[in-house]
Specification:
The protein is an alpha+beta fold. The chain contains six helices and eleven strands.
Length: about 230
């Protein structure tokens, strides 16, 4: 007969536990949901990268674009996607002298160096675009290559003007246009554009790449892969 009270107590305990388990937990408030969301986002947020200098931070956070890059009409004017750079900072940051209205964009790193395109107006107020390599550790400029510039025809003296050597239709400008493949094959074309009829004449093509120390070197013609990506 003693077992009955024990069984009754066990049943009462189980019923109490079941009753507690069936109670609904209160829904979280809006404030609690926002707090949980903030904590979750902080947990997955990448740690802010630290830089040795403000110049290094500026270079590292410039707009970025992938390769290939191909010159299009007006590229030198619009510099699409480029970020503004104070002209006084350009010589120390990129090693390029005499530019105003300067902008720059970062390209993929190559062979352990940082690569940038820098554009602006030169001392003659003509548009120019350069490719620049920087040391991967110190962020100091290594080398630069002119990708785009405008060549105005030189003025002829009076004696030559009186002769038939220079004809009106020969007047125009020679400029450099460029393309950069995904393997950092840099093709530079010299193009003469006539002022008379806007005709274009290809005068020469050179190709360059980036060496192991960040220097630009000219590729041999038998090693060129025109148009290959």
């Amino acid at each position: 007969m003693r077992r009955l009270p024990i069984i009754v107590c066990l049943l009462a305990t189980l019923l109490a536990v079941a009753a507690c388990g069936n109670k609904r937990r209160p829904l979280p408030t809006q404030a609690e949901l926002l707090r949980q969301d903030s904590l979750e986002r902080l947990k997955h947020q990448p740690k802010a990268k630290t830089y040795a200098t403000t110049e290094e931070e500026l270079l590292a956070t410039l707009p970025y674009r992938t390769l290939p890059v191909t010159y299009e009409e007006g590229f030198e004017h619009t510099l699409p996607g480029f970020g503004d750079i104070y002209p006084t900072m350009v010589p120390s940051l990129f090693g390029v002298e005499g530019l105003t209205k300067t902008k720059a964009i970062r390209l993929p790193d190559h062979k352990g160096c940082h690569v940038f395109l820098v554009g602006g107006q030169d001392a003659e107020n003509m548009e120019a675009v350069y490719m620049v390599t920087l040391d991967s550790l110190s962020w100091r400029p290594i080398d630069q290559l002119t990708l785009y510039e405008v060549w105005e025809p030189e003025e002829e003296d009076d004696e030559e003007e009186e002769s038939d050597f220079v004809e009106e239709e020969d007047l125009g400008r020679t400029r450099i246009e460029f393309s950069v493949t995904s393997r950092y094959e840099i093709y530079i074309q010299e193009v003469f554009q006539s002022y008379a009829d806007d005709s274009r004449e290809l005068q020469g093509v050179s190709a360059y790449s980036i060496g192991s120390k960040g220097e630009f070197y000219e590729l041999e013609h038998n090693k060129l892969n025109h148009g290959a990506e």
